[in-house]
Amino acid sequence: MTESENQRRGIEAARLSEQELIRELENIHRSRHDTLLHGAPAALAAHTTRMAELEEEYLRRHPDRPVSAGRTRAGARARTHTESDGPAH
């Protein structure tokens, strides 16, 4: 990667400290919606590539991260069934 490419894309995710990685993830997720709605196609493609790189690095470092039960298929199904049952009396 050339120096100018590195400046545009940022530091390789694998070279970031844990604190830097978290900060980069927070920033990229915060800017995603605006990039999707208003970014040029090249900006959106670069954003997508960088976001994937950062997320993959996070998952590589944290393969056993805690997963919320509500963020699983079973949890989503349980939530849908509860919501469709109506209010409890």
From TrEMBL:
<protein>
    <submittedName>
        <fullName>DUF6158 family protein</fullName>
    </submittedName>
</protein>
<dbReference type="InterPro" id="IPR046156">
    <property type="entry name" value="DUF6158"/>
</dbReference>
<feature type="region of interest" description="Disordered">
    <location>
        <begin position="57"/>
        <end position="89"/>
    </location>
</feature>
<feature type="compositionally biased region" description="Basic and acidic residues">
    <location>
        <begin position="80"/>
        <end position="89"/>
    </location>
</feature>
<dbReference type="Pfam" id="PF19655">
    <property type="entry name" value="DUF6158"/>
</dbReference>
